[in-house]
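Quick note —
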Amino acid sequence: MMKTLTNYYGMWQNSFVYLLAFCSGFAIMGIELLGGRILAPYFGSSVHIWGSIITVFLLSLSLGYLLGGKLSMHQPNLKKYGLLFLFSGITVTPVALFATPILEMIFIQIEDARYGSLVASIALFFIPTVILGMISPYSIRLLIDDKEKSGQVAGILYFVSTIGSALGTLMTSFYLVLWFEVNTIILFYCSLLAVLGLCSIALAHYPAVANKTGDS
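Predicted structure written out below.
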């Protein structure tokens, strides 16, 4: 009976991890798109600004993939996974609350819009994007029970995450920016990530799931 329950909650946990991977992809692209809106009043909206934003996001995600893979080697569990979401939500919050003074300071100090936008992108988005980048490799580690199926699991995870990114791009650019202010949307993404993180931490304390993942 206990084995059946563990298998049932294991399936439920895998679905939950896929859902969180979908939401992280949705949030990453939504925040990246809003980056252009946030920097535009100070540095314009030329190709240089988008070049800075995309470069910072790609470098941050690549570093996040590296760190997430490293972290997943040390007793992976839903509690640590939830903390990644919680910290990412917390570190995105200053983008909504303190972007104006940060951008004003950088705008005054650096006259060249190319380098100013690059420094501004690093200041606002580097840390949260690194943490968000850690989610994908950690998700794969939580999902893999059988090494022979690791390629299939990674393929499904990236499929789900990329679908989330595509929908996050469409929803943010087509609808959310028309309905809400930029800071409101940023705070929505902060709340979404934090709530998902708390749900993952709470689930980690459920005995059947904890037994499967090795949570304490």
